[in-house]
Specification:
Structural class: alpha+beta
CATH architecture of the largest domain: Beta Barrel
Order of helices and strands: HHHEEHEEEEEE
Number of domains: 2
CATH topology of the largest domain: Porin
Shape: elongated
Strand content: 35-45%
Number of helices: 4
CATH class of the largest domain: Mainly Beta
Number of strands: 8
Mean pLDDT: 78
Helix content: 25-40%
């Protein structure tokens, strides 16, 4: 029901904007205000479609954006001149397209597997820990995002394997660990940072092997920003706090601290 209401709202907004071209009763200032709102909506859709690789739709919306900007220049001139010169009718802009991200098509990616993966290297300052991990990135198959009032693609999951090498929390002994990671990710609205994509994430880790035995559960939490810089997928940087425990005595054998992660996503 919520999706239907959203679609009707967006369609009604687009029709109202198109009607401004023909409506003589609206002042140029009113037209400019509505035009700015429509451009903001277009920018949000362009960012989302570019992320999903929808090149054709991105070009279509960029053309729509250029057409709207051209009309707004005429409206601005009318507002500054205090007149309402008639504007030649143009084709009404199409309503913004609501796109639900779909799983990667079969055959997509480097090896044709269609698997979205992430590769991360990091450093924890507290115990001079060097950390690396490889993750399988999963979409929100349970539809949790819409259930809590977020976008369809706001939630994702990571399951991965990593390695850590550093000292214990007392800085005395060299430790190593091979942890299994399980994380949840919440993608934040891009307009929070002026169009830059950001997210928060966190989860648990369990050392499968390492100094002193398999260890006990640890945690990680992080805030990250990401974008496509031409490496085959989104490249990201994260500010993180992590705790990785090895051995039976969890406190002296913890590797923990504030750190920085960098990595990239690759479709296999």
């Amino acid at each position: 029901m919520k999706k239907l209401i959203a679609l009707v709202t967006v369609f009604t907004f687009a029709i109202a904007l198109a009607g401004m071209v023909y409506a003589d009763s609206r002042t140029p200032a009113d037209k400019l205000e509505a035009g700015r709102a429509y451009l903001k909506l277009l920018d949000q859709k362009i960012i989302r479609l570019r992320k999903d690789g929808k090149t054709a739709l991105v070009k279509q919306m960029q053309a729509d954006k250029k057409s709207t900007i051209d009309r707004m220049k005429e409206w601005k001139a009318e507002a500054e001149g205090g007149t309402s010169a008639p504007v030649a009718p143009t084709a009404p802009p199409p309503p913004p397209v609501a796109v639900r991200p779909a799983p990667a098509a079969a055959g997509a990616g480097w090896f044709g597997w269609g698997l979205n993966t992430g590769y991360t290297a990091g450093y924890l300052a507290g115990n001079s820990v060097v950390l690396g991990r490889a993750d399988l990135i999963l979409s929100d198959g349970l539809g949790i995002g819409p259930m809590v009032g977020l976008a369809d693609d706001a939630i994702s999951w990571k399951v991965g394997l990593g390695g850590a090498l550093g000292t214990d929390s007392l800085g005395r002994t060299s430790r190593k660990s091979i942890p299994l990671f399980v994380d949840g990710i919440i993608n934040l609205p891009a307009d929070l940072l002026g169009g830059v994509e950001s997210y928060i994430g966190g989860g648990v880790n369990y050392p499968l092997s390492g100094t002193g035995g398999s260890g006990t559960l640890g945690i990680q939490a992080y805030y990250g920003v990401q974008g496509d810089i031409g490496l085959g997928g989104n490249t990201y940087a994260e500010l993180t706090y992590s705790v990785i425990r090895t051995g039976a005595n969890t406190f002296p054998y913890s590797m923990k601290g504030i750190g920085l992660n960098v990595g990239t996503q690759i479709l296999l």
